[in-house]
């Protein structure tokens, strides 16, 4: 047993291949390694170790993917004229604001999550927005963010030492303790090669709408909040 090293192993974890002797050791190893015990169907297998069982597993996995894709294609919202009309209207309004808004097919997570709307009376977008804080390994999702709100105001409840929520403030301590001049807001540039990923640097003093103009948005904006003094692998356009 690789957990207690005392008893003879009786079980092997399908996920991490660790040997265990009892249910207690199985639970311990799951807790220690954050292992869920479910076999990873997409785990890498070298050619030398590839067997007929691996081939059968891959074949069944592809069948499951095919069924899931077919079910998504048959989903009612795909053929719902109202949903299509709303999406077309949303893209059209974004185009008039000089934003290239693109939507994904039904079944994609971002399509399912997106709650962005356009208020015709106010002539204003209410965006679904994701904030990512890489240095704290934290993500937050905002809904109904008005397009005339500045990025500085959007970030206040998260990184402002006075106005931020105490729980959030504690998690994002590295940001709240840093001067505001050190905070940098980035957004990934879409449609670039994987080996040439670049980011736009956004202006915190300007509104969300002004920052999104002239850019490609897939479903909704994702903003990365980083600190200039800390090393990160995000290359800003032009650097």
Automatic annotation (TrEMBL):
Keywords: Isopeptide bond, Metal-binding, Phosphoprotein, Ribosome biogenesis, Ubl conjugation, Zinc, Zinc-finger. Interacts with FBL, SNU13, NOP58, NUFIP1, RUVBL1, RUVBL2 and TAF9. Interacts (via HIT-type zinc finger) with the RUVBL1/RUVBL2 complex in the presence of ADP. Coiled coil: none annotated. The lineage of its organism: Eukaryota, Metazoa, Chordata, Craniata, Vertebrata. InterPro entries: BCD1 (IPR051639), BCD1_alpha/beta (IPR057721), Znf_HIT (IPR007529). The gene is Znhit6. Belongs to the BCD1 family. One of its GO terms (cellular component) is nucleus. This is Box C/D snoRNA protein 1. One of its GO terms (biological process) is snoRNA localization. Residues 1-35 form the HIT-type domain. Gene3D superfamilies: 3.30.60.190. Required for box C/D snoRNAs accumulation involved in snoRNA processing, snoRNA transport to the nucleolus and ribosome biogenesis.
